[in-house]
Amino acid sequence: MSSQYDIQVVQAEEDPTFRPDLVMGGSTYKSIDDDVAGVAEGFLEKPSLVWYAMFGLSVSVLGMLGAVVAYLLYTGVGIWGNQSPVFWGWPIVNFVFWVGIAHAGTLISAILFLLKQDWRTGINRFAEAMTIFAVCCAGLFPAIHVGRVWFVYFLFPIPNQMDLWPQFRSPLLWDVFAVSTYATVSLLFWYMGLIPDLATFRDRSRTKLRKFLYGAFSMGWTGSSRHWHRYEKAYLILAGLATPLVLSVHTVVSFDFAVSQLPGWHTTIFPPYFVAGAIFSGFAMVLTLIIPVRSIFKLEHIVTLRHIDVMTKIILATGSMVGYAYALEFFIAWYSGNPYEQFAFTNRAFGPYAWAYWIMVSCNVISPQLFWFKKIRHNIAAIWVITIFVNIGMWFERFVITITSLSRDFLPGSWGYFSPTLFDALTLLGSFGLFFTLFLLFIRFLPIIAMAEIKMILHKQNTTKEHQGGHH
Amino acid sequence: MQQSPKKHWRSVDELNETPEFAELLGKEFVGDDFDKNIDEIDGVSRRRFLQVMGASVALAGVASCRWDAEEIIPLTSRPANRVPGKAQHFASALEFAGHGQGIVLTSYDGRPVKVEGNVLDPNSDGATTVFAQSAILEMYDPDRSRSASSAGADVAMDEAQRYVTGLMEGTVRPAGGAGVAVLAEATSSPTVLQLRQRLQGELAGLRWVEYEPVSRDNAIAGTRAALGTALRPHYDLGASRVILSLDGDLFSGHPAQLRHSREWAAGRRPVEGVMSRMYVAESRHTIDGGMADHRVPMRSGDVGAFLALVEALLAKEHGMALASNGVTMDDVPAAGAATDAKAREVARSVAADLAAHTGRSLIVVGPNQPAEVHARALHLNGLLGNLGRTVKFTDEPAAERPSHVQALTDLVAAIDAGEVSTVIVMGSNPVYNAPAGVDVGAALDRCENTLHFGLYRDETAAHCAWHVPLAHPFESWTDALGWDGTHLIGQPGIAPIWGSLSNIEFLQWMLPSITETPKDLIMRTAGLNGKAWRKAVHDGRSEGSRLASRAASLAAPTAFRPTGAGEGMEVTFAPDTKVWDGRYANNAWLQELPEFMSKLTWDNVAMLAPSTAERMDVTTGDLLEITVDGQSLNVPAYVMPGQARDSVALALGYGRTQAGVVAGNDEVDSVGVNVYPLRKAGISQTGGEVTKTGKTFPLAITQTHHLMDARGMQGVAQRLGALVREETLEEFDPDGHDHFRHMVHHPKLVSLWEERSYDGYAWGMSLDLNVCNGCNACVIACQSENNIPVVGKEQVMNGREMHWMRLDRYFAGDDVDNPELATQPINCQQCELAPCEQVCPATATVHSDEGLNDMVYNRCIGTRYCGNNCPYKVRRFNYLNYRKDLKDPNNEVAKLALNPEVTVRSRGVMEKCTYCTQRITEKRIQAKNEGRRIQDGEVTPACAQVCPTEAIVFGDKNDPDTRVSKLHHDARAYELLAELNVKPRNNFLAKIRNPHPDLAPVVEADDASNGGH
């Protein structure tokens, strides 16, 4: 079901002389405040049953995750299917999956900001929030998947009486730094961006508690020219800082695999391939989430079809990169002449895990190719389905990389076959519970669209129109 | 990588891509239900590992009985030779199915924790079998009987003694022993024999019945037939250049298996130009067959015909015929697997080799073959001039007794006839292991007085009114005769844990007039005293004692016309290589030990040849119904390359119902299937019917956990030549330098890090693939030495077995029904540039300055990254608390089996082979105190110490004179996966096969092409 704004965008695209607005529907500063803050404020006046139902479900799943984790801590990681030779199973697959999802946020906030891509404003808050929540889910897995969780602090370089440090050669340690840095910077960045909007919320608050809390978190923002000046500088600096992180996090995550010597892991293509895959999955997840949200909360004039169209193009591009990487892996395996490498890859595609491999290829390589067609790019339902496929495919990509390579390495005498347990599935499901719980709280209590930035766009848009004499 | 000229696979399912296989592949998560609802799968109804050493709650109260209230008084002076926490070593003895083995117990603070071989025992030369290794666990088994009992209720030992005395005085003696039978397991103990003779002397009517379900009666009958008198043959495998083993058990099960292995290995030293050739014809895999240069699978019933064929060929082509009743080619059956074209081809080479090596060849026959085959083999050995050379004879102590089956059958008949009403069972478990049709349980139930004397309250104890617990050999003074007759003296390593009695003490209950201590009785038997006795106790054997050798003269041969097994399916029975006849079934180490060929744990199976399985449309795990004479059993199938066609191999020893919580009791399902009900008296092979039931059964197999696809097989085939490097003797150049190392080509290797140098010691290991026969002794020795937990069937099915040493078994060759075999022992290679160390974020695995790849358990948080990055996959992870069982108060006693020198690992921690670092440390301290370097051979890891073929050699690589240094420079030496530049400290010595030139496969030239990593 296309909204009137979507139809306008589609119509506008037929007219080469005309470019649709990024903010549509004749929005004003006031109307934007009303539309966005209204999402959160709406809950006050009319509790949404849908929200409560969804939140109840998410919290239940989160509670289930808590129970599973408690059982895990009590019993041991043996409740999962991990074995020998597949020492890493679903927990690591889930970790990489969530870290990948976490990529879109910072990419949109930082890189697109630096590149002055104005369209990012419609979705950046949303994507950043998703990033933070995905990092939370990702961070959970490495912590709980170790055998002795109570000693997980051994991973941190804490000065101690034994003068014993972590092993700095281990990519897992690099991971600790990369992911925690990324989480910190993403959180700061997100929070920085929230400050003017939190102040708006504060100003619109009608209860004392709300006023106090929003007031506290908006840190005394008044919107003064000095505030704006500092704010913009700081935001620019943070964007600059975050930009390399977008590339570094998943590069480092890929090192977990690439630095090892396991056939199927030990490949130099991993860093760019992982980063492309991460952006791919991140954008897919943003779309999966924002498509229903913008429809439910009537935000089609702010998150327009144009935004979605741009994102599908990015998915198409990164999906093709991922496909290219898959192909190149095979080529290099063949070209290397290394029989173990050759086996690792043909075994992926034609061995006992061929089913997983072909799910991955169908979802990641074939399905985004549909975005070549404008009809598909303008079909919201189709886009949503494809992004779900991409999410599934990207989970399977990590499954294929992690598990097929481990299950058959060098000595056939130690080969095995991994079978997940019920607890593997529950842990994965539980992480979605965590994600959606945080996400639903975000919708309810925080501005889901960067209002201040939209207003800047609106300003720019209006100014441009004035100069051109206006169209409508 | 070297392209192997042969096609390799690991299980038949790989080779035949069956539709079921394809279907399985199509399913997500093959082989396991997504939700792991194991409870629904028949046969693994619970977490077996939790119970492995736990016992029933009913027994829990008894646990405290062992430790009486006592006052602790500190010693004012230290007793001689006792330093708290320091190991002491005592020679002792152990019987295996009635034959003695000299052993040495390692003991800490008065508790034995480890068994080693006794180098002074000529039968073992310091090696041990899996059975001897696991005897420690048996001694500390919480399921052992802890007290006497009457009608199922525990009673004090005094009361039991009063009962026995009363029985003897009131019933037995007045009747002169009439109506009384002692049903005993075989023992070689001369002291027990003397007591028995005394008892029989006093009580003329007493029947002494010796019964063993697995015996060498056929061999005894055969030698009696051939020599006129039953003598015991002793084989000299070292002197034999050509060996023909027919269904033989030279290396597995034979009482002299350790000496056989040692001597055979001494005859397989290609670098020194010593290389014997071994031919084996057998129906099921044995270690003999695994080591053969030529193995001909044939039904057990056909083996005699094969021997006839060899004899006929000797006569026809080499003019060597027996003086009378010889077999000619006309007498050989024209058809049948034993004499088909392929068998004839092999037989022709056998005959040629035998004829060319008169006096230096050997024909041996296994205990499952009928007496006439044994007799004929002796005649042929005589014809070949081997008697007195490779086959020597001594007296046979068991010559006079009736066959075991006969003795038991007669006893049951006597009970049925009312001639016997009092039965005292000593150690034997005939209710479980009697042949089909001999109902010992019912017979015992009919008896007036029954008493069972044994280690466990087993199936037989359940049919006896009284039970008296037997002391473990390590708890009491025992003696035994080795196969060669060496008198072994077994001193106790610990006081009886449950106050139980030794055989000698129990017989003294029946002979109250003998008041000497068991030790004095043994001393008198040995005829030693004073210093000589003390030396004998110290050495574990009375020096110079052995059976008298006898010159043998062959009687005239009788006619030998074996016809072969004919058509139809054959069912064969043999003792299991892990639990033997069932007596070791409650030993969790043995249950979890991967069977040497099938790599199966926690079950027995019906092994079928691939072609037979294909005909019957059966795959591994299908449940079969096997019917012999109207008796049926359901046994899971295992498709075994190399199994004879139309022959089903069953292993005895499973399906125990009163063994304990490991193997099965009232509360725990039996492990495996009891196949004794199918086994007719005195027969090891029989016709039978085998049908599919349509059901399946989950099996815990440590190698090829699941079906393998064509792609996987291809991968194995491609790399196997590089992993197990081998040549034939003809191809092999003993002077070739580093030839095997260079079989895999790789670019110049550059180290990422600065390599360490080693000023002190640099430990290394060498593993000889040429003589490793897969006997598994190293696996159990390692488990015992290093406190390796048992995890249970369910965990093994999930690939979580914990053995630090594993034996990879590979098949090679194009014929699935007759493949070549290779066994490769894999433990931690202690890489110089260890990939595990580089990826551990917690610094929990680090390099020692002696080159060991140390595992710091305290520091390990369990990321398992090291396991992923280990190319040999030797690391084992404690996914769960596999030591939970030790928390059970009833299992206090099981803790005593733990080696105090080795940490017991918690859950969440990675572990792996340490080269027995505790042993190195012990010697390092000793050497340092004495101001010297550790000498070569001073430190021996557990695996190397038990190895009967000395395939594993350990030592200091820094010293060029050590054995390991020399072996690392051997012409056969190579490193596994050297192309990864991990620089392993282990070197393998390539396998050299010695095929007969006429039979040697045409091997294409090495297609050594592209490099490795």
What gyration radius of chain A follows from the Cα positions, in whole Å? 23 Å
Helix proportion range of chain B: 10-25%
Care to count the β-strands of chain A? 0
- Backbone CA Rg of chain B: 28 Å
> Strand order within the widest sheet of chain B?
6-5-19-18-17-7-8
Keywords:
heterodimer; A: 472 residues; mainly alpha; globular; B: alpha/beta; Rossmann fold; Barwin-like endoglucanases; 4 domains; seven-stranded mixed sheet; 30 helices
Q: Would you mind describing this structure in some detail?
A:
- The complex is a heterodimer of chains A (472) and B (1013).
- Chain A has 472 residues and is mostly helical.
- Chain A has one domain (4-154, 167-468).
- Helix content of chain A is 71%, strand content 0%.
- Chain A is built from 17 helices and no strands.
- Chain B is α/β, with parallel strands linked by helices and 1013 residues long.
- Chain B is 25% helix and 19% strand.
- Chain B has a 7-stranded mixed beta sheet, sandwiched between helices. In chain B, strands 29-23-28-25-27-26-30 form a 7-stranded mixed beta sheet.
- Classes of the chains: A mainly alpha (472), B alpha/beta (1013).
- At the A-B interface, helix 7 and helix 12 of A face helix 22, strand 34, helix 25, helix 26 and strand 38 of B.
